[in-house]
Amino acid sequence: MNAPRAQEITEHTAPNGTVELATRPATFPGHPEIYSNKDSETEKELAQIDFYNGKTKDGLDVVLVPKTYSTSPGLNVHAANLPAGMSRLDYAAAHTGKAHSSNVKVIAKYKQTIPTHFTYSPSILGYYHLSRFLDAGHVETVVVNVRKDVAANLIFYGGVTTGEDVIAAVTAPILGVFGEVDHVISLDAVHKFRGNLERHRKSYEFKVFAEMPQGWLNDTMPGRYRQAQSEAAWAMMIDFLNRVYAGAYPPGRARSRFDSDISVDYDFKKNVRLE
Questions:
Q1: CB 153 within 8 A of CB 169
Q2: What total of structural domains would you count in the chain?
Q3: Are residues 177 and 119 in the same domain?
Q4: Residues of 99-131 as b/e, b for ≥16 C-beta within 10 angstroms?
Q5: pTM score over 0.85
Q6: Which domain holds residue 66?
Q7: pLDDT in the model for residue 271
Q8: Which CATH number covers residue 211?
């Protein structure tokens, strides 16, 4: 598939009347060669998934199953032939583990929040083909869901390249947590992202932690992990969510807060990757 593709949006209406948008971003600029016809067909199928009572093109039932075996929150999207009398809820309860029988097919992973390796949008449906271009083994975003029923968006050292079309559609307040010596996310990028939120009158709270590198909440990487600051960031997140649910960000109001502690000699080029 050599012709570039523009962004495409598919609308879904939830049982409660909420309209959900499945957005297929435009092809990666300048590199149409990484997309095959199969990729395009798969993207369309994923964007058309009905999470509530849907079926695949093969007639299998679509079921959302919580990932209870992983510390990365999300839902596995199963394509299953539900036995007579079995509800989707009963099926999900019986298939939360990592091991599955041969007749169970996991067709995608749905992220309702933003873990650190997905830095794109409030909710994503992940697929793999961009990893061919990046020469990486992890999932990259292909389908983006901007859900109107999301109460809050959480960003930890990422998310700064989120497109303005996605920002314009976001309705929930955003918490952004960043590090001063992050070698991936520059403070200029953070300020640009903040400016986009301001221009679209979106509510947000940003915090730049002094001397923190990329991935400093990751306790599996001793060179990056900072326990005290990680605990502080966690407490900040819990406080933010509590205030959101207490009505601190009412509809129709744009509220913001920016807290930064950086060196007057800050130089992004001097930031290095830590292991």
A1: no
A2: 2
A3: no
A4: eeeeebeebbbbbebbbbebbbbbbbbbbebbe
A5: no
A6: 1-148
A7: 94
A8: 3.40.50.1820
